[in-house]
Design goal:
Layout: E1 5-10, E2 13-16, H1 20-36, E3 40-43, E4 60-61, H2 74-84, H3 91-111, E5 131-132, H4 138-150, E6 155-156, E7 159-167, E8 170-178, E9 183-188, E10 191-194, H5 224-232, E11 236-237, E12 246-248, H6 256-261, E13 266-267, H7 274-277, H8 296-308, E14 314-316, H9 318-326, H10 332-351, H11 355-363, E15 373-377, E16 391-392, E17 418-420, H12 432-453, H13 462-482, H14 498-512, E18 521-522, H15 524-540, H16 549-574, E19 585-586, E20 599-604, E21 611-616
Parallel strand pairs: 1-9, 2-3, 2-10, 3-6, 10-17, 18-19
Antiparallel strand pairs: 4-5, 7-8, 8-9, 11-16, 11-20, 12-15, 13-14, 14-15, 20-21
Helix pairs in contact: 1-4, 1-12, 2-3, 3-12, 5-16, 9-10, 13-16, 14-15, 14-16, 15-16
Bound molecules: ligand SFD and adenosine monophosphate.
Length: 623
């Protein structure tokens, strides 16, 4: 067996991940832990300064309610989220995050985040809920706050967490390995937060060749959150609710600023605005089809209908929007000044968060004030914090959660001591960066309470740890043992390399579970076939080989993705209707049904290895 030193770390509160939710949790948990003499430890597979979805920065804060300014009420936000998710949402969770999110935004401003203000010193809104920021260094300064709160001695960067440890139904630790040194890590804890983001590259991406890996979502969030919660036996929710963003084509630049701030139209190649020409289609999806704003999946759907009729390419009319806004200026001199401002805002929107889109504009001689740019639907992602909803089923807060949704600690999963936040917790969409940080803070506080009230020291069976170490490092041994069998180490009958494993997974998902090449359409027959092929893939996961630590990371990322994939297929299969056209369409159940206005949840039972599918009622609350 590969020779790895075992490093054991004992802590009270373990934060798995180093992204927005993790940083929020670190700041809050550190505060309460200090009062109670507890230790908090954070583990990130990457370097926190640039890890996770906010790595490149962001150009907006997408959740700000503005409660104090009287701009909106909690009910307004709940209505918005419920409608956008076609009725399927946990209003207790959405409200809990929404009532604390403004204070998180103010905290981030205090940490140094530049939020745009107007001449009166008021925040500049992108849309009703979104604030414009100069956010290139957003993640750096949020990470700095977390580091200051915890101290570097309690932060382990570049440690890839592979597996949770559950004893007697309680989360007591996690194991992983260093991505740089031959070290195997065992973390023992009283309570843990799962916040390792969502998942990408479960489906075949549009990008190929040199562009392979380019996606809207960060390629390094690979399903660890779903894997951890599923493997622990936690109940999961909305695993069918993938997110398909519409983005500037090929470099995945954001569209929010164009639609909301610049008030741009998107048209097909015939200069038709599909939001107008396809308006009748929205009737089929009422009541949600008739709300404002039109839900994200339905906006996608209307666009897709045009594409399927061959009316593409679809264009963001940047030139038209800039011209129109500049015309608002009172005279020619100020119009020219305004034009310059708009041009620079357009470029900054990309440079703040999707630099490659600015590069693509430069490479294709695109001046946004002169010509439109193509937009397209991306491949599917799992991101419970944006306009998808997949994640763990967590407890609501005591004061507002209906009894069915409350089991003791805010945002704790159905496994004792295991909490989830950000992309890792489900049915509470539209949290984005600020809401994820807020949910992390909520968990940080609740976890310290849990650790104070549940004082049992974590006991972990040594034999179990040794067995995990052997299994986790096995891909290295597999490669060493068989690498000499063939001239080309990529082609070997004894093993499969992580990249090839990923291609197989993506092909299955793309063709059978409604990916890009299947026009996001699937059916029972297709899903059954997909599950059959996933069975073979799972068998072959025993044969994954890794040449070095880098590939060992890739190997486990893909195994995590495989579990995300299976829970997705099973849940789409379970929900016998189409509720989110534009995200996926079931050709055998092509409409929305009243009796499916429920949560579709799943549980993988660790003792039996069986999957259980359950319906849970949706309880709206009055706030
Ligand atoms: O609009 C392991 N998001 C946006 N939010 C906004 O508020 N404004 C925007 O402008 C946003 N846009 C945007 C957004 C996302 C992306 C990808 C793009 C653009 C291109 C959404 C937010 O970014 C998102 O809601 C939050 O970041 C979610 O927070 P969290 O904590 O759930 O996930 P994370 O930040 O990605 O962090 C994950 C962490 O886990 C680590 N990790 N660590 C150890 N072991 C493992 N096995 C691990 N696997 C992962 C990661 O390294 C990371 O630290 S807009 O254009 O859409
Ligand atoms: P995006 O860049 O698509 O992630 O959008 C950023 C924010 O704007 C998110 O809160 C989206 O839900 C919202 N948004 C984007 N496009 C529209 C639109 N056409 N109508 C309403 N809201 C939108």
């Amino acid at each position: 067996m590969a020779n790895f030193e075992t490093v054991e770390i004992k802590t009270d509160v373990l934060i798995c991940g180093g992204g927005m939710a993790a940083c929020g949790a670190a700041v809050e948990a550190a505060y309460w832990a200090k009062k109670n003499g507890l230790k908090v430890t954070l583990v990130d597979k990457a370097a926190m300064d640039r890890s996770g979805a906010v790595a490149m920065g962001l150009s907006a804060i997408n959740q700000y309610v503005g409660l104090k300014d009287g701009q909106n009420t909690l009910k307004d936000y709940c209505n918005y989220v419920r409608n956008d998710l076609m009725g399927v949402t946990r209003e207790d969770l959405v409200t809990n995050i929404a009532r604390h999110v403004d204070s998180s935004v103010h905290l981030m401003e205090k940490w140094g985040l530049p939020i745009w203000t107007d001449a009166d010193g008021k925040y500049v809104h992108e849309g009703r809920w979104q604030l414009m920021i100069n956010g290139e260094s957003y993640k750096v300064l949020v990470a700095e706050a977390a580091k200051n709160a915890l101290g570097m001695e309690n932060i382990h960067e570049r440690v890839f967490l592979v597996e949770p440890i559950i004893e007697n139904g309680k989360a007591v630790g996690a194991v992983g390995f260093s991505t740089r040194e031959n070290k195997f890590y065992v973390f023992k804890c009283k309570t843990m937060l799962v916040c390792m983001g969502g998942a990408v590259h479960v489906f075949r991406p549009r990008s190929i060749g040199e562009g392979l890996g380019r996606s809207w979502y960060p390629p390094f969030n690979s399903g660890a959150s779903t894997y951890f919660t599923l493997k622990a036996g936690a109940e999961m929710t909305c695993q069918e609710v993938r997110f398909i963003p519409v983005r500037f084509k090929d470099a995945y630049g954001p569209v929010g600023a164009w639609f909301l701030l610049f008030k741009s139209r998107a048209t097909n190649a015939l200069d038709e605005n599909y939001m107008q020409t396809r308006r009748d289609e929205l009737e089929k999806w009422k009541p949600y089809g008739l709300v404002k704003p039109v839900p994200a999946n339905l906006r996608n759907w209307l666009m897709m209908l045009d594409v399927m009729e061959g009316k593409g390419p679809i264009l963001m009319r940047t030139e038209e929007a800039i011209e129109k806004l500049s015309q608002e200026a009172p005279d020619e001199k100020s119009r020219k000044k305004k034009l310059k401002e708009l041009e620079s805002e357009a470029w900054e929107d990309f440079l703040d968060m999707t630099i490659s889109q600015a590069i693509l504009w430069a490479a294709t001689n695109t001046a946004p004030e002169e010509k439109p740019s193509e937009i397209a639907a991306c491949e599917p992602y799992f991101i419970g914090s944006h306009s998808g909803a997949s994640g763990a089923w967590v407890s609501g807060p005591e004061d507002i959660a209906p009894p069915e949704y409350f089991w003791g600690y805010s945002h704790m999963t159905t496994v004792k001591g295991m909490f989830a936040a950000g992309d890792a917790s489900g049915a509470s969409s539209h949290k984005f960066s600020s809401g994820s940080l807020t949910e992390g803070r909520i968990c940080g506080k609740a976890m310290v309470k849990y650790a104070v009230e549940n004082t049992d020291e974590p006991t972990i069976d040594n034999a179990k740890v040794e067995a995990l170490k052997k299994a986790i490092l096995a891909p290295l041994d597999m490669f060493e043992e068989h690498k000499g069998y063939t001239v080309d180490p990529d082609v070997n009958p004894n093993y499969i390399r992580p990249k090839q494993f990923m291609f197989r997974l993506q092909k299955i998902m793309d063709e059978y579970a409604g990916g890009v090449t299947a026009q996001f359409t699937t059916s029972k027959k297709n899903l059954d076939k997909g599950l059959e092929l996933l069975d073979f893939l799972r068998e072959d996961s025993e044969k994954i080989a890794a040449e070095n630590l880098h590939e060992l990371t890739r190997a486990w990322e893909n195994i995590h993705r495989m579990w995300q994939a299976e829970s997705h297929i099973r849940t789409i299969l379970f929900r016998e209707e189409t509720r989110w056209p534009g995200y996926y369409f079931r050709s055998d159940f092509p409409s929305m049904k009243d009796d499916w206005l429920v949560f579709a949840n799943c549980i993988w039972h660790p003792e039996s290895g069986e999957w259980e599918m359950v319906k849970r009622d949706i309880k709206y609350i009055s706030v």
